[in-house]
Fold these 4 entries.
Entry 1:
Amino acid sequence: MLITCPYCGPRDVIEFTYQGDGNRERPQPASQDLDAWNAYVYDRLNPAGDHNEIWQHSGGCRAHLRVVRNTLTHEILSTAFARGGHKSAGHKAGGHQ
Amino acid sequence: MVERQLPERQLPERLSPLEPVYHPGSHGNFEHGVDVILSETRPGSILQLAAWPGEEKRLMSGIYKVTGLALPDGAGGGVVNGAKAAFGFAPGKFTVVDEAEGLASAFTGLITPSIGTITDLSHGRTAIRISGPKAEWVMAKLFAIDFALPAFPLGAGRSTNHHDVFAQIQRTGGDQFDIYVFRSFARSFWKALCHASEEVGYEVH
Amino acid sequence: MSPRRTETGGRIDRLRTIRFTFDGARYTGHAGDTLASALLANGVTLFGRSFKYHRPRGLLAAGVEEPNALVTVLRGEVREPNIPATMVEIYDGLVAVSQNRSPSLAWDIGALNQLGGKLLSAGFYYKTFMGPVIGPLKGTRFWMFCEHFIRRAAGLGRAGTAPDTSRYERMNAFCDVLVVGSGPAGLMAAKAAADQGARVILAELEAKFGGSANWSGETIDGASAADWAARIVGQLEGNDNVRLLPRTTVWGYYDGNTLAALERVTDHKEVPAKGEPRQRYWAIRAKTVVLATGSFERPLVFPGNDRPGVMLAHAAERYANEYGVLPGERIALFTNNDSAYRSAVTLKKAGAAVVAIVDVRSDVSNEMSRLASQAEAELLAGHAVVATEGGKAQTGLNVRRFELMSGALSGDERSIHADCLLMSGGWSPTIHLASQAGARAIWNPARQAFLPPQPTQRWIGAGAFTGSFSTAEAIAEGRAAGIQAAGGSASSAPLPVVEAVPGEPDPAPVFEIKAKGKSFVDFQHDVTAEDVRLAHREGFVSVEHLKRYTTLGMATDQGKNSNVPGLAIMAEALGKPIPEVGTTRFRPPYTAVSIGSLAAERFGDLKPDRLTPMHDWHIDNGATMFAAGLWYRPMIYGLAGETVEQAYVREAAATRESAGIVDVSTLGKIAVQGPDAAEFLDRVYTNMFSTLTVGKARYGLMLREDGLAFDDGTTWRLGEQDFLMTTTTANAGKVMQHLEYFLDVIWPELKVTVTSVTDEWAGAAIGGPKARAILAACVKGTAVDNAALPFMGIVHGEIAGVPVMICRLSFSGEMAFEVYSGAGYGMRVWEALIEAGKPFGLVAYGLEALGTMRIEKGHVTGAEIDGRTTARDLHLDWMLSKKKPFIGSAMMDREGLIAPDRLELVGLIALDNRALDGGGHIVEELDAENPHDSIGHITACCYSPALGKYIALALVKGGKGRHGTRAFVSDPLRNRFGPVEIVSNHFYDPDGSRMHG
């Protein structure tokens, strides 16, 4: 499986670490809503189809990515930096798009 | 972080992590010609400069002011100029290398907290150079990235790894790459590099 | 001249003679021969014994799909079993042996199995070894009893036990177009793509490029097809954009157009060059793949179809045209399609007598009849072969009249004298890679074959792979595929002109002739047509179940010959059309792949070593090294004759007596920098860091999001926006990822950079009553007294002429200092400290003594922060700030995490003065025979020189409430039961007076 890192270009999946379901929302730090915390810490979507995921390019630039992946076909539909910004760095000096 | 320098004077030479396994001379299948040359370049300064989002241009101009290296735009863009080199290796992050020691202090006034951070990695990274007609071939044994010139242009940098060994790689010549690995892994990586080079014949400078 | 070698012809180098042995006998062949062709040229027709019945077997094929002629190649002590003789290129000194026979190939005692043929039918193992319900051989014991004998009798080659000393390598490749297969379609595709300027890799699993062009006898552009192919290969060789990979099998097609290939670099060489790998594993990332993998000719299923002398028709053509070898002198052919007629003509031209062509079709075209006459063969249309005659070699065959629609046989058997029978059951496109890439194959009733599916990845098919079996089609499709793959637009330039023997591609739908005798479907696993029907009768209707029950297609050839005939017979038994029965998905690898090639450069050296700057000193000074993750750390510096316990007790005692020094360079170190660094640390740690003053360090604890303890360490404030965080050695990577995740995903607004600086700093911890005096003796530029360097203070100075940073903190409970220098100076500073310590009795100590002193002091490590414990369990609740939220703060007070019966950290003292062991359980009752009701377990243990006792840290229910009580340690696996006293985890200097000095 190849994942196209917005910075590094397409790289083998072994360079990436799966960091879980990208649909989770962390409650405000001071929140005492235990249900919300439970949902954030333990609940994971597991769709058969397109899934929003967080991956870290841990064996490369180490950026975290938001990846939309089809869990049935392994097709990667899109990748983007999890952290906004650095837009100027979205293209490569050569080679990969 | 900025290493505090004592009053200006020559510091003793640093010990290379490769010392016991660094054997200058020809090795491997060299009877049929030496197709790669391996060396440790031992730069005096290896810095990581990181810009906050939106501050990349100011950081790059800071790099230009100190080193004279004009970084091209774009991910992984880099430039080499004799004793100095710089390249992007991650969003907003750059590696800047100088043969001379003490480059960090040159940046301290220039890269302010509003722009980003300076991290001195002069001891923490070991710089290994591979050059020669089979450099791409040998590198391709160790790293799953495309080393062909159109895909990896001169000066450009890449972050990748060889198994557990992180590496930043800069193309510093048509058939030359500088590889920056963590110092603790350097000896293991050097041995792997030598092993991979045996097939084509190699020389250690 | 060899008995079967033709006078001329073939593409072997007749001037070069090569000597090799097979089963100990010496043979010669020519450069360009395979082991199969060379042996056949020498008159060898018996190549192996079959899997179950030990039936004599000869060559069925000439290529990668060969199921019978499997050999073991020996290189010194190293054996490589189960290689098709058709894929072994001969070299001087090659030693090959046959398999699955005893004592010899010609006289195989296992052939007696044929007499018990009924017993060994499908499901034999399942049925026979269910076992009696009672008695000594109850259940699977009978199987276990018989296994030894059966494993010897049934099977393929034997794996060796000698270590494989060959070199294997991995290669990563990138290209625009990967062309798999180098027949006319593949060559055209590669050429067309290269002409468009694309980066092309052309992989051919055989030694020679050209595929069928090497033996088809056809003419392309006025030259022999083989010469044409050689010319195209020459053009490709001259193109810098093209990489030609001969002897390279593309065996896996994975997601993202990533393909795996195995290049056999030196298997055909007597001696590899220095540093040359035996095999190279290619990981190829191709923008587009052209699949030009051709097709396999199918055997026909009829009694005696496995006798040596029965061969696929094209294989005989290939032996004749490519190797100049005739597989027989009097040849008969048996076919359901036109392609065998070309084979007949070829063999006639090569000098064989073609005695008959038996065609199941009664209606044979005039063109084919003409070809039969050209071959001077008797044409027996509407006939089928019902038996073959002979022993280890064929002497003849019997034919009967055959009714195509009903499959009925009629009339008298007629016997034909022939030493070779060539069969052709139609052609199956080699769709394995396309199937691996994703989609299901599609049955084509006209071709009677599975054709490649619609691409689910970026590949384009060409030639016989797509079911276009003629060379002219292959050339046209190959060029179109190459252009398309390279992103060009279709060419109207004229195509190379092919002159070929005519023939229609569609066979008659006949797979099996039902007559008396064993008719083999899967030659390699000895599965007969009757086995397939038996499986059906026993209720196996799914093709996947059929496969597993009969083992059809599960041998090393993975059903390359048997897949379609087996399916057709199953479909007939079920009374369903073939597409409704389905086909199994092909999985990687396409052919057997050596484990060595997958391990590649990791062979023998699985993980990189991580070494500290002082590593060589430790080795030179007698350290026994211990692998901690990837790191190597000194365990003890043992003296001659010392046990491990004696060594660490000496080291720990000396440290508490005078001073000790330990290498702490492996501690994870993370630079946390930026305007929001302090705020970030407040969120990450349970305690406050924004209040830490510059030049001071603080002990910090991190929790996970779920409120459990995660990691601990000290963090040093080096500047207003500049912190140096230390982590445990084991968790350095995890903590780094944790911090990066929060900065990238959760709090992107924070201006903080985190950088691994573990390798930037060498660290030496020096502790003990004399530690300060030693430092004072060698540090310049700073004082190290209480005023200048209080507990948790940081100073900068110089040792041996290099800058150092010293922090006063303690893990051992003694007054101690961590001395950090640039890693390149680590050895220099270490040696200076050792030198300065000599007058004070300084000892170097290792992990064992480090662990001993931390247990005495009651500090926690990864053994206690085990992913199940909370801060409270570890008595670290004093570190949980109430002034701010932090990671884990919302979840840490959940009911289960504050329950009173949780395991808490305590100390244990062995009351029987015997060693305790990690993992031992704590029980309340004195019942060594039946220990029960564990109240906790030991996490770390040692002999404490400070207390003169065996002690341990443990996690025990009730924790502090049990201090001063007695319990028992129970460790039945190590036969340990004995009394312990439960005490505070702070065994040593509980008020910290030594540390604070």
Entry 2:
Amino acid sequence: MIEITGLTKSFGGAKVLAGIDLSIAPGERIVIIGPSGTGKSTLLRCLNFLDRPEAGTIRVGDMTVDAGGASKAEILALRRRTAFVFQNYALFANKTARQNITEALVTVQKKPRAEAEARADAILREIGLAEKAGSYPAALSGGQQQRVGIGRAMALDAELMLFDEPTSALDPEWVGEVLDLMRRVAQERQTMLIVTHEMQFAREIADRVIFMEGGRIVEQGPPAQIFDAPRDARTRDFLRRVG
Amino acid sequence: MRALDIDYMLGLVPVLLGYVPLTLAMAAAAMVLALVLASLMAVERVVKIPVLDSFVKLFISFFRGTPLLVQLFLFYYGLPQVVSALSQINGVTAAIMGLTLHFSAYMAESIRAAILGVDRSQWEASQAVGMTQGQMMARIVLPQAARVAAPTLVNYFIDMIKGTSLAFTLGVTEMMGATQKEAAGSFLYFEAFLVVAVLYWIIVEALSLVQRGVETRLGKAFAR
């Protein structure tokens, strides 16, 4: 169970998150939609302290972190319970596809190298990149890099996987393969919090869709309700604009 | 204008070659020590540890701001007068110490710039998988910074090899010191210093080959 209460964040005086409350059940797949600049990515980045929230609490399982006064150790512990998929992939440029997956298993989780490598090889097969195991990110297409990015996140066995617009930086030809992989992750009932502009995908895999605007959660509910019968005018406006 | 004494020059080559190992050993020792010291200072300058930061800034400022020869004299002739523990310091040690401190100041700035040049996403990805700051630096950031800094660092190594010639002013008989002695005996100064100049030149050129190898190796992750 993940419980977020009263999470706030501002950049240079502008409130980007104006008090977010959200609880996420184990295995729940949540998609966050909304206009650009409404704090969707910031919410994700605050959950693992890539951006430091100002106030509020984040509870993951038995651990509660007070955003305002979080210690280094708490931040580290929180990060080790979450996994993050970046819009720009952010693969380790000096590591091969396989090393990108084993790196945190060995360095952070202290798993034996052989075990980490076996896990990486299994994941590389799952993401369809077994033959690219020894390739460096610079030699991979955008779609392949993002699949490795997701594979790296999968390997962590995190309680919560955060996806920050994972297909937004991709050429259209690679979007499909990345969404396919995310569907497979979703089928394994991994707890996911996804920011995306792929509405069809959201409708398909989400247990719950959250519409955010102006740093607040405006409306949330099952995809059928949000997409077919939105209650709030702002949600209707947004959906009409993105068609 | 007189003719060059070619026989003398050819005879001098094997004599001076005997001192190449000492020159290279001094440069290599100073390089390894300077790399370690410079990396530590560079990381400190990036993460900024309160009191230490001022000290590192002062260190870099001093060792970049004063001539190497002055620093060498300070260590070898000056320090033993005020610090009795250093009264036994020999010329080779003093030269290695001087070269290390002097060049580490320059190298720290190059490495710092290279660290700051590593893409933000690499830092964030390291943090997101739960690495500590030390793990992030050692595993992800420094290896990528090394690639950027390598050409500059090899240049400093070249400078260091040439810098070892100053050790002769501390009474060390290395390549330069040996040449000086030979020339003083034969009075063939032009021939003697020409031979030693060419020897330094060949060493540096050979090193440029190594440099290309290192750069290819460090760049292999980035080749398309």
Entry 3:
Amino acid sequence: MSGRKHTVLKIAYRELGRMTSRPLYVLSMVIAPLFCYIFFTTLMKEGLPQDLPAGVVDADNSSVSRNILRNLDAYQQTEFIRQYSNFGEARQAMQRGEIYGFFYIPEGLEHDASNQNQPLISIYTNGSYLIPSSLLYRDMKTMATMASAGVGREVLLARGAGMDQAMGFLQPIQIDMHALGNPMLNYSVYLSNTLLPAVLALMVLMITCFSIHTELKDGTMREWMELADGNVLKAVSGKLLPQTLLFVLMAVIYLILLYGYLEFPLENGIWPMLLAAVMLILASQGFAVFIAAAIPSLRWSLSLCTLWGVLSIPICGFSFPVMGMPAPLRAMSWLFPLRHYFLIYVDQALNGIPLIYSAWYYVAFLGFMLMPLLDIWLLKKTAYKYTYLL
Amino acid sequence: MMKSIRNLLSVCGQELRKNISDTGVMVFFLIVPLLYPLLYAYLYSGEVVREVPVVAVDQDRSAISREFLRKADATPDLHIIQYCSDMEEARELMRRHKSYGVILVPDDFSSLLVAGHQATVATYCDMSGLLYYKALLSGATMVSLDMNRDIQIERLAGLTREQLKVQTMPVENEYITMFNPANGFQGFLIPAVLILIIQQTMVLGVCMMSGTEYELRKKGKLFLGREYKDPLVVLFGKSLAYILVYALMSVYLLMLVPHLFHMPQLANRATLTAFMVPFLLACVFFSIFLSFFVRDRESGFLLFVFVSVPMIFMSGISWPASNMPGAWRFLAQLFPSTHGINGFCRIIGNGALLGDVRKEYMLLWVLAGIYFLCSLSAFLLFYRSSHIPGIEFIRERRNRRREIMSQRLDVVGDKIKTVRAEIREDVRERRDRNRNQSNG
């Protein structure tokens, strides 16, 4: 028993030497994830974008329209930066990217309103920028409705109705939205919680695959195998041990950043998420070893691991839900470790439901970890049979 | 002058040949740009999320509450999968990811409405995806607006419908999303991804090529022709090769792919072409400059793939650029992708003309200039430095060739000598024999 441990530690020590011999490892294992941690959490530190630039076209230029305009700037998320003289000018400003949307008040608004012709105010937003466009729409829709209701309310109050009665008449049914787990609709909560582990998992996939195959390239693979007395399992576990420790440290850093420093929702405490983060790293390593053993070529196995890491970001469904994807991709999404992490995060951190509901995702992680057992023996063949060809 | 042009073309040809023979590079220059956009477009082919599964809890059980729920189910956004008796049952379905929201009609709903007060419908939404929230909000709001109008009409019996509308809604409003009519994911994300693919695959491919060169040099196996003597010629030759490859890829990515997936295509051809020139130049010199920091084939993978994720955010396509911290906004200016994405999205999505994207267009020229100077100075520096030999190998190859030639000459010379000697011997022998015969 002690002999086995000794071998693994010997290889781990050797790997530590390899990792410190070139700056590439530190750059991609520590600097790259740290950069992304800082980037994403500071990028969206406002939570919801404030003061989005918008414009106004007042074709009517009457006292009524000016009155509407005066009340527009009361919203936090929208800032009316300019008034344009006609529709074309506002459209061009949108094409230049100066504004994300604009209000169009048609000619004859005052005249139509006083003649009870029900004039039409139009809201235009630039759909090429989805998030600003949606947020602007929400604000501007409310503004337009309020402006209109304001006029109606005045009429009713003047007729002697109470405020409660007036609202009961103007809006008999109102909708009360409850955003569970993220009541402020914080974008950082919504994106950082998945993007930080996604970048880390990408790095785990690439480094694991790279560090195995680079032995073949350097011509040291045989030496590595012989150090483990020809036992592939020992050889690989010794090699991955220092990497695992470093990656777990990086995972702990993002957990502290997200749930300790930024105080993002964490309903069931840190333990389920810590377990998920550690298992995400181990699962990614397992998957990468499986690929590295199956494909005895550095460029192809590394390409595949990279593809898997990058593709896992859209396919895990945090921005566009998996249920909206075509059926083959829906089925494929289970083959990405990040998908399981995302579902655990939703259950455990965001919604805080009992751990048992997430059990299957943890089991899936176990499956990824065991994947190398299927083909790891091929690595030995690779070590003795193949040589690296440029 | 003519000679440098011939050298330049020769370098370009050799680089192209190297691209084609290296499968690793071809993955980036060909396979990824060809297939990745298709994969992405397929991923988002649904554009928007329809019929989000929700459950209803009807505590009121009146005709009007049933009408509300029936109408909610009929909206394109929502699909009521089940009517639950209480919130606990509804919550259980959410926990099992069967539903993503709850519509709760409280028990005082109809009585409040009858009394002429305001009644509230509560909705609870799973926040694992913002699109669920959007669907639930817009679905429920649509139904409430619709029913509100009917209720008002009932209450004010006696007035005409038109009079009523004016009473309740003196000013009507409408909503138009310009340029992305489906307001979907494909129309918003794919154009940005296409531009990023051009830049990133170019960076990765160029880095892999230069990494390979570096490795070969270190092993002493790099043989370059005489035309590789002049750094300026090499720089231009390489750039020309990459631009040729990417001019083709750009036509595919920016004209064919949007067409294949029915994305917004308001692009003015001339504008698009004019805009791509500085973008490709900036990308090429950016890639060549970065490739100097790469010491082997795979470093590019590990160092530059992950950057794609922050880069797409830096472009401001998702989180608006106007709300980024200053430091990130500045950093974003350094990448061709930032200006490329902003310009291209507005050209193809909004039908912007060159004048409308003047800022991005000028900045791309500036970036192209900066990275050209950077890579030129790097080339001059590295070609002179001793630890990355360039000229040395040319000289070495020439010497080796001479050596081989002289060896061959020696061999041939020796052979000629022996043959001559043999002939001489032979002639002498015959002469001797003849002399003997005539004597005898």
Entry 4:
Amino acid sequence: MTNLLASAEEIAARIPDGALLALPPEYAPCSMETIRALVRRGAKDLRLLGVPQFGIQAELLIGSGCVAEVETAAVTLGEQGLAPRFTEAVKQQKIRMRDTTCPAIHAALQASEKGVPFIPLRGLIGTDIAARRDDWHLGENPFGENDPIVYLPAIKPDVSLFHAAKADRNGNVWIGLRRELMVMAHASSAAFATVEEIVEYDLLDDPQTAAGTIPGLYVSGIAQAERGAWPLGVPHLYERDHDHMALYAEMAQTQDGFDAYVDKWVTRKAAAE
Amino acid sequence: MSGIRTEEVMIASIARMLDGLSHIAVGAASPIPGSAALLACQLSGGATRVSLLGRTSNPTFTDGARELFDCAAQGRIDAFFLSGVQIDGQANINLVSIGDPNKPKARFPGSFGSAYLYFVIPRVILFRQDHSPRALVPKVDFISAPGVSEPNVYRPGGPYALVTGRCVFDFDREAGRFVLRSLHPGHTLEEIKRETGFEFGLPDGDAVPETEPPSSEWLELIRGPVGDEIREVYPEFATRMFGKD
């Protein structure tokens, strides 16, 4: 049964310290409200997995000292440039960084979907990414001859966390085209979503929505959070708030500026609501 | 038609390399190649399909973020674009860090899909507007994706050309090196030699050709429909190039 939770705070309370936490890219809806709640609850030692890359989600958690390790293909604020708290944390060796590449993350999650221990992937050979990954294995195509190929271990996140336009009271979450969220939910031990709206009908009853819906079977908990992806967007509902992202990028250049950002937009904003 | 920008010369140079292709994909942080791909689509009368990462309208893919990579693996994508904070003479690209990666002097976003797509997409066009010895180096500090591979490594794809703010290089896969193809208007061979940190070949003949600038008809397309389309994904770039919406 999916838990119908009262708020993003209740989701944050269910994401334990030290968890391997899978997060979507900025163009899929991100549960920024839960990210802020994790900062407020003082989460510790999180291991973040970018599926396959992320930006301000990782920034807020890293800058707030919630993160021990990051595995991702990239951390970027897009047109707002480098992610300053991530950059600083890597340079000062405050987090363990496991560089990877987008399809390696997708493939390793698909291995978990299938319940197999590893998956082979083309490319990768001769990169410094592979050279620095002790957990990857350079093997041979067992069906070919002199055909080297990399084996990746399955990745099974403890929790995946995302935002969506709507869910129903049975815990079915409509994601539309953003099917990386489906893979994340399938592959993870637990999946939590905030949603703009909880509808009173069953999303699986209508074939128009059923195909783009994660069944409640895979969803541990949902909570309503209107504009819960802000300052990122939700496709077809609201746009990424470019001005606010520019403000963040400017303030986060220093730790003091970042702390002032968190005080205003993460701590006090919640207290005022 | 007002003065032609460097970005527009780059867009036109890249668009010429895309003529006749059926499917072009554009990844993250790629407004110049994205514009070139959309221009190629316009010039083809819509026959060329463009998959622009981050675009909500007119999606090509319906199976999530992995589909781009699986599609490329099947040979269904003809061209893609990569850049690097460093690019070296063997077309190795670095998107990660400067100095020791364990204690980097500078850290950048990361390798994105380069470590895979460079291997499987036939025509990967490298782009970098800033053409300086700092960017175009003898050897990259970190190989996000290698320009060439051992003969037994599965590799239907690889580097095709490098377009900078000063010139166009072709990549000779047999020789594993860049060959200067053309100089953008106003740039000289001496300048390219001074500003390039790696060795490169010269074209046959006495003089290096000049990059053909975009025609007035192409400029109208770039500043019109292409600018309108690229704005959805790159609003800052579009405003800087073409003004406010």
